[in-house]
Every structure is written in structure tokens, then in C-alpha cells.
Structure prediction request, 255 residues.
Amino acid sequence: MRARLAEEAATALVAAQFLTRLPVPMGLFTPARMAAAPRWFPAVGLLIGSLCGLVFAAAVPVFPPLLAALLAIAAGILITGALHEDGLADTLDGLGGGGTAERALAIMRDSRIGTHGALALILTLGAKLLALGALPAGAAPAVLVAGHAASRASLVAAMATSRYLRPEGAGAGMAAGIGGRHLGLALATGGLAILALLAVLPPLAALGALAGLALGHLLMRRSFERRLSGHTGDCLGAVQQTSELGLYLGVLACL
Prediction:
């Protein structure tokens, strides 16, 4: 039992190492742990969201809510190294500029950002800022925690139920390693984060969070699966971003 717990802890740390720039002990990576890491992605999202929530809570007594929201968003970008924002930009550049699936995938490999990617980032980050700034200040930290955790559960769901398109890279091993129990743990973690919103929000707002998350997930998946017939790591980042935004907008719409 002790060895199993130690292995799970190491896998969780590998997940944190993959998703964030937080200091994590080196030497923990193995292909098996990387393949199993997605089940811990929403738990890492809980940590990221908690840190962002703390930034918001510390800033809002001093600054206007919009500035507190901006600082919280900036904290998330610093913690993750803009991993998912980069995926969103690459995905929208590929979908916006590629006439065929092959051309879209080639554009998505290009590290340079194009018009579609830049606009996607501006609109998504701007909408997050306005939504978080409009929430009740006492509820915004909990909404940040739920948004970061549940959107990473949404990412794992897309990974588990959509075909991975590239034969190489970490995504191939992770997609193959997600079993039913792993997906169940990820979804349960994200679901509990949304359920916890009931402590600070009315039930309708928590339901709106779930509905907005689902809508963001489905709209982005429909966009890239219709064109590509599968996903890449960039597409998963785009799902995370639109799911997170959808959750914030769902809460705001139902308050």
C-alpha cells in the first residue's frame, strides 16, 4: 500500500510538472507515469485555481474587481507558462488558415502566432476578465478554483473520447493510458469543484457553471473534430480554455 501511494504521489507530481512551472522534484518522469498523469490534471487545476483565487482575494480589497481579476488571470498564465493559451492560439490559427486537415495541422505546428490565434486570445482573455470582474467578490475565488479544475476534467474527457492525430509526442501515450477509472477520477474531481460552488453561489449559478462548461467543451470539439477528425495537444488546450470561459459565463448568466 505504501509503495502504491508513493507511485500515485509521483504520478501527481509528474502531472504538475507537465501542466505548470511550479518547482517539482526532478527525476520522477517515466513513460508509465506520464501516461497515467491525466487523471491528476483536474487536481492540479485545483491547485492552480486556488493560487489564482488567493491572488484575487488578496487584490480585491486594494484594487477594483477588474484589476483583481486581471492579476488572477496573469497569475494563472505565469503558473502554467501559458500552456493552454498557446494551444488555443495554435488551434484557431490552424482552423482559420488551413483549407485541408493536413494544412491545418501544419499551421498548428508553426510556433508563430497568426491573426486568428491572436484574436482568439484577445477575445477569450478579455471575456474571462470581464466575467470574473463582474462576479461577486466573495464568490470569484471559488469560481476560479472550479474553472481551473473542471476545465481540466473537460480536457481529459476530450483526450479520452477523441482520436489523437499525431503518432509522436506525450499526447500519444497519455491518450492510450486513460482508462475508465482514470477518466472517472478526473471527472469526479472536476464535478466536486463545481459542486463546491454551492457554498458561495445559488444552485442555479452552479448549474449554469456546469452548462457553460459543457457548452464550451462541445463547441470547441465540434470545431476541430469536424475539420481534423481527431485532436492534437493544441486542441486539448483550446478545449480547456473554452470550457473555463464557458463556466465563468454560465455562472454570471445565472446570477
